[in-house]
Amino acid sequence: MKDLLTGLLTRRGFHEEAQEVMKDSGGAGGFALVWFNLDNFKMFNSRFGFDRGDEILKEIAMILSSIFLRDDKKILLARFSDDNFVVLTDWATVELKIDRVQEYLYTLHENITLRLRAGIYFPSEGEDIRKACDRAKLACDNIKKNHSVSSCMFHEEMSKSLALQQHILDNLELALNKNYIRVFYQPIINLKTEKLSELEALARWNDPELGLISPAEFIPTLERYREIHKLDVYAMKKVCDDYSQCRQKNLPLFPVSINLSRLDFELCDIINEIELATAVNNIPREMLNIEITESINDEDTSVLNLGIEKFRALGYEVWLDDFGSGYSSLNVLKDYSFDTIKFDMKFLSGFDINKSEKAKYIISANLSMARLMGMKALAEGVETEEQLAYLKSIGFDKAQGYYFGKPMELEKIYSELISRDVSKPANI
Ligand code: C2E
Ligand code: CA
Ligand code: CA
Question: pTM higher than 0.85, yes or no?
Answer without folding.
Answer: no
